[in-house]
């Protein structure tokens, strides 16, 4: 069906269209394929940058803008300007509106009525009389003269316009019509056919370039997968994972057990050292200062020995604490 339609269209079109179509489409395809591939690459990069950079940065900037500009102005409007405006409105009502209303009602209104009465008596009545008996007859006379002058000017303008019309028609319109009919219209038809064919060729080339770009992209993706991703996956699965497990079982776990054992030994050693230091400190303090309970008992024993050796004398030697 498509071949029959294309044959029917080619049969109905002129030889100029058939001669221009194939070269134009070939040139358009050669020029458009690189541009379409570059366009697809830029679209992919733009989507990646938009998802990873521009959108988070835009959200951060929106939040910063709200925090820096919107929220302070909202707080200023809500807590400063609105109360200040309410206060100013109340002051304006009390200091301006109420006195102005009172002045308008009790001073300006009676004064205005008085001035309106004096304007009516001094201006309106004389103006009506002047308009009725002076300006109306003069205006009618001037209107009659103006109508006559307007009719004369209309006749002159009509004659001049007729002369200009025929002059422009003979000197401009007929030559321009002939140039349009016999020169510009055929050239315009040819240019329209050329422009239409160029546009159709560019559209066809753009669609073909899209398919070529899609095929090239899929080929590059498959090449990257089988040259980088699959070898890396195979190396990770068959080499790095067993090596990691062996290193974990043979090196890391013994090292961790040794480290935990060293930690326990170190904690026990530090605990014994702290106990020894505490005991030594207590012994040094007891040697330097002495224990109060032990010193009192030793003094009582010394006092009893001194009393027994005094041969029955009643004088007792006072005891002093060391």
Automatic annotation (TrEMBL):
Region (Disordered): 289-322
Name assigned to this protein: Integral membrane protein
Keyword annotations from UniProtKB, A to Z: Membrane, Transmembrane, Transmembrane helix
Keyword Nucleotide-binding: no
The organism's place on the tree of life at top rank: Bacteria
Transmembrane segments: 26-49, 61-81, 87-107, 114-135, 141-166
Coiled-coil residue windows: none
Upper classification of the organism: Bacteria, Bacillati, Actinomycetota, Actinomycetes, Kitasatosporales
Biased composition (Basic and acidic residues): 313-322
């Amino acid at each position: 069906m498509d071949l029959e339609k294309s044959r029917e269209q080619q049969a109905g079109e002129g030889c100029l269209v058939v001669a221009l179509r194939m070269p134009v489409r070939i040139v358009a395809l050669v020029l458009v394929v690189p541009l379409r591939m570059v366009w697809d690459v830029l679209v992919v990069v733009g989507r990646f940058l938009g998802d990873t950079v521009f959108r988070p940065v835009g959200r951060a900037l929106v939040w910063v803008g709200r925090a820096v500009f919107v929220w302070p102005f909202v707080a200023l409007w809500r807590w400063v300007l609105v109360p200040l405006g309410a206060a100013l409105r109340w002051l304006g009502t009390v200091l301006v509106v109420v006195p102005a209303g009172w002045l308008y009602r009790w001073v300006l209104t009676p004064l205005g009525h008085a001035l309106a009465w004096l304007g009516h008596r001094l201006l309106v009545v004389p103006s009506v009389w002047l308009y009725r008996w002076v300006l109306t007859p003069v205006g009618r006379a001037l209107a009659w003269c103006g109508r006559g002058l307007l009719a004369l000017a209309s006749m002159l303008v009509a004659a001049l316009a007729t002369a200009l019309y025929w002059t422009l028609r003979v000197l401009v319109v007929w030559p321009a019509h002939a140039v349009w009919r016999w020169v510009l219209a055929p050239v315009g038809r040819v240019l329209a056919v050329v422009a239409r064919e160029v546009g159709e060729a560019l559209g066809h080339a753009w669609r073909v370039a899209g398919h070529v770009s899609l095929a090239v992209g899929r080929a590059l993706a498959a090449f990257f997968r089988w040259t980088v991703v699959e070898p890396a996956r195979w190396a990770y699965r068959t080499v790095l994972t067993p090596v990691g497990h062996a290193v974990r079982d043979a090196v890391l776990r013994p090292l961790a057990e040794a480290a935990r054992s060293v930690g326990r030994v170190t904690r026990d050693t530090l605990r014994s050292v702290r106990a020894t230091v505490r005991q030594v400190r207590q012994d040094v303090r007891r040697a330097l200062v002495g224990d109060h309970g032990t010193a009192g008992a030793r003094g009582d024993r010394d006092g009893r020995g001194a009393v027994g050796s005094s041969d029955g004398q009643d004088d007792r030697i006072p005891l002093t604490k060391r």
